[in-house]
């Protein structure tokens, strides 16, 4: 629907966007009621569709009685099948509206005279027939005047039915259920569709009558309003043929009335109806095409974008936003109309839209206006043009409203603001690429100046740049004159700069595009399906992540409980032994008294050798390493010719001493990738050395702030407390009460953090506590300190409160990192495709390093993956990464999507093991301190507030510890598997290199595709050179258009299929994870019961031991 138009996910620049699945026309203003009511064949409610055959038969008899028919006339009607009876009921019970829905007629004449015939009055509930009993069923209003449809064959009926569907302006989705109807139902629909309404005096029913009435010079006031209302209904309900007959003549008549209404405040309702008529007229391909072709239609419509008439402006803004997105001329026409209106009103062209954004009491207006802004800014292909439009809108006033809009809680408004900011960031990032990826705030004049100066510095453009700046100094120093100067200069610069790309800012004389986009419109339905797929993938991914987290938590609980069970079983066994030993000792002491001392035990084996220093690994035996390599000697069996290449500088072979029997590099088989053509391509392309570049970073120093002197406190502490108290703005006694009551609602975590940070030392607090008698003479920071000094254990109390308040946040920060890192470790270890790619790269390495000290390397460090793009070919155009992507694409296409098996590596690259360890250790210390404080507090009310929290927090902490231990174990296993030191090569570095490799690989694949396309275009151009220049231009243009359309269509289909596969895979993963989670929860329940049982037995044995003592 036009009113619910969204600009979500339109990331791509210059792509055609649509607001409806109906190609080439705007969506209808009516809701879709479902079933056949949207086509005019059933009443608005679905009462007849939901009735059984028995109910239909009863209502059919009631209808016959209501029609006052004789039994002779009822008999042939009763023989009709159920579909025909249902259709008759639909038409008989159709509720007449103020305006005839089928004909859209306006009854201007008076009511009929009272002297009606009985037969006419009995048919009040249905459309009147203009014919007198021609025979058969036409007398009841169910058959056309002639019996043409009765005599037609099924084939003819099918053809006419298709023509009817086209005439009704239906989409393929709505045509599909109608085509499934049986032949009797189709015949009944054709009869009703072709039924000619009766002409009565005073009615407007034909397009010509509406045009004549709209051209009437005496048309004004209420009469104009009623005619426009009737016309809107007719344009909405009649078929396309009716609109075509209304044509350009009718469109001009509407526009002329709209111009008159815009100049008259008393015609606001009529102006609104004119806009609604234009909206209904555009709701077909014919109408939309005529609106776009019309030279002044959108300009006149833009006149209604007037903040003084918010109702009409809202509809006009929605239409302009939708038209703006329809290629090829929609964007240009809308801008042209808005520009001309701005010139007519002598104001900034976007000012009315900005005023609409400022209407805080009209949320719909704000949402529609920001939609129009997004449509205008994001549609152009050219980056410079997009930046120009955005800067103009921001300068007109959006920059002052943006913060205000962001503070509103309306969901749709926030979605559109997010789209606006996303496009802005993407454009700024694209612009920064022109300046060597310099990070510049383009809204800051100083940074823009510095960037431009650095660009022209020490170039032939520098004198001209200086001359421009010098001429700026000549501008007269008058407030209003200076502004006009700069405005004129800005317009000149805009025309000069943008005209370089063929974009003249004078939109009335600009033809930006000349592309036939009709073939692209058919892909809009496919795009809609893709968007639905994307939403489904996001939802399934979130479910999968939640299930994965719950599964790992359950596994951690299982691990913790199993350890506890082992510990309790050990204690239980020891206690049983001690109890039995005590009883046996008492019995045998009497018997074995008098025996001599026990014999000396036999000496055991010699003591073990002293342990190695911390961090030092056992020294491997040379024979053991040789044995491991000898068992897997496929590396030694390969022999390659020497090749000079820069790869030797980047490659770092693995340490042979770290190789173990189960290491990846020991089992890696690169021999399966050996081939003569691959060997020749490697040697041919990579035989030169590359030069690396160094990056320098600059540092800035910030000046320190001065303090303030106080009596007891030092100036810095006093200043910090003053700033803190100024931000809190709560009486000191209230702050003290909140702390004593541990009121978490009135004390925020940020406030408590500042109190802990800036409260004075205990000595200073004690000193100030003794000055309570001189309270009024102290400065505010010292008065606050005196008030707080009466709280015992102030800092520990604040720290406990802060820990409790931030504990959920801390857990939510740590747990997702643990889940992602654990899953990433499992994915890397189990990915077969990634392993094959590593073997292929190893083969490249050994081929290129043949004859060097790194020849026949058993493996390489994972960090080398991120350096593949630094190894360039001898012509410098491609890299080893491009070569790898090309080989995989040609010979091993099943490895192309290896990154799908490493979904969590990107998140794991952001996880720091040091931070995890630090957070968990800090959490342990804080929990321990809190338990100590609780014991010291005893049974005080303050202590009771933390009892339940400590129990819950301890359980969650144990789960986190178990998950971290699992992660640590998995990463150490990865270190052994890939032969690296996990203490030196950290977790984030390892997964960061894999992430970089994935990104570089995907970019290399795209680069290769672009290269092939370029080569194909060059080849085609050379072949076309043999023909004449005229034929060459025509064929090249045709070929490019066909290639673009075919590529777009194939890309959409491929993307759609890929999304279907992704949803299936994500669903299977989610179900597997859910099953594992349920199994883990069952294990947890079993182990908890066992722990309780063991604890009970342990308590009983301890009691028995006490009794024995």
Concise overview:
The chain has 1109 residues and is mainly α. It is extended.
List keywords for this structure.
mainly alpha; 63% helix; 1109 residues; single chain; 2 strands; two-stranded antiparallel sheet
Q: Determine Rg (CA atoms, Å).
A: 41 Å
Helicity, as a percent range: 55-70%
Calculate the terminal CA-CA distance, rounded to whole Å: 86 Å
> In DSSP terms, counting alpha (H) and pi (I) runs of 4 or more, how many helices?
43
Beta-strand content bin: under 5%
Quaternary organization: single chain
Mass-distribution shape: extended
If you average the pLDDT, what whole number results?
73
What does this protein look like?
With 1109 residues, the protein is mainly alpha-helical. Among the domains are: 37-108 and 121-193, no CATH class; 206-282, no CATH class; 528-570 and 1035-1109. It has 43 helices and two strands. It has a two-stranded antiparallel ribbon with strand order 1-2. Helix 12 packs antiparallel against helix 13, helix 36 packs parallel to helix 41 (941-978) and helix 38 (880-891) packs across helix 42 (987-1024). The radius of gyration is 41 Å and the shape is extended. 26% of the residues are buried. Keywords: Coiled coil. InterPro entries: ARM-like, ARM-type_fold, DIA_GBD_sf, FH2_Formin, FH2_Formin_sf, FH3_dom, Formin_Homology_Diaphanous_sf, GBD/FH3_dom. Residues 637-1027 form the FH2 domain. Residues 1-53, 101-141, 594-615 are annotated as: Disordered. Residues 598-615 have a biased composition (Pro residues).
